[in-house]
Amino acid sequence: MATEETLVLVKPDGVARGLTGxxxxxxxxxxxxxxxxxxxxxxxxLLEQHYAEHAGKPFYEPLLDFMMSGPSVAIRLAGNRVIExxxxxxxxxxxxxxxxxxxxxxxxxxxxxxxxxxxxxGSDSTESAQRELGIWFA
Length: 138
What we know:
Blueprint: E1 3-10, H1 12-16, H2 20-29, E2 33-40, H3 44-50, H4 60-67, E3 72-80, H5 82-90, H6 103-107, E4 120-122, H7 126-136
Antiparallel strand pairs: 1-3, 1-4, 2-3
C-alpha cells in the first residue's frame, strides 16, 4: 500500500467551538497517522498563497477575513488513500447537506457562510496536498 500525505486544517470555527479534539479523534479512528500538527495564526500572505486559485472570486475576501479571524490547526496527515478518505470523512462543503456521520454533517452549522465556516479543509489532490503542505509546513 502506498502511503500519501495531505493537509488538513481545523478552521477557526472548529477551533473556536472546541471541536479540534473530536475532529482529531475521528481522523485517528479512521486509522490515519498524524505526522505533524501545529496551531497557526495565519497571516494574509500565507492565506493568499493557499487560496491563490480563488483570487478574484466573490467569496475570496470574506474567506481570507474568516481564516484570519482566529487560529487554525494545521495537520500533516498520512495514510493509504488519505486524500480521498479524509474528504469523505469531512463530508460535503455545505454543512446543512453533509451526510450524518461526517465531520461537517455531525458538527457543522449553517451560518449562511457555508463555503467559509465549514470546520475543516482537506487537500483535493496529490498536487494540491504537496503545494499546501509546502505552504503550511515550510
